Amino acid sequence: MMQAVTLTLSDEIFAFPTRILHEILEPVPVTRVPRAGSFATGLINVRGTVVPLTDLRVAFGMTSRPPDEHTRMLVLDVPVAGAETTVAVIADRVLDVTELDDAAVGEIPEVGMRWPPEFLSGIARTDQGFVIVPDLARIYAAALSEDSADFSFEKDPSSCV
């Protein structure tokens, strides 16, 4: 069983393991980074620590939408360039904390996927429908890749403050 926090991005349900979750914030001021791409749009201050703010909708080819009263920022520890790094992720809405049965997390189909399969760890079947379990290590590796035109992620975000 995996304890996970579920959230929505563009009306799709995603799940992150709670073991990587630091906290969930209401939107805070964002310092925009010059020449930043659409994936890592800026930096936020989390209890005195500079944290890059990222938008997973970019990685999944989803349309962005303006923040509303349900928008949240999840502060996570994710593997970035071989080290655990604290990042913030925008969520349209945080749903709840639930347990996902490992047996319910299935393989990623090769056909008919609208999400990049290389960015998925699996898809869980639940009573509410399908829950996407992203592969955050691969998403952030692609963001750091010099070959990636779709992402822009500062390797040293503190140098931009």
From TrEMBL:
Annotated CheW-like domain residues: 1-145
Pfam annotation, one family: CheW
Coiled coil: none
InterPro entries: CheW, CheW-like_dom_sf, CheW-lke_dom
Domain of life per record: Bacteria
SMART domains: CheW
Matching PANTHER family: CHEMOTAXIS PROTEIN CHEW (PTHR22617:SF23), CHEMOTAXIS SENSOR HISTIDINE KINASE-RELATED (PTHR22617)
Protein's name according to its UniProt entry: Chemotaxis protein CheW
Organism placement in taxonomy: Bacteria, Pseudomonadati, Pseudomonadota, Alphaproteobacteria, Rhodobacterales
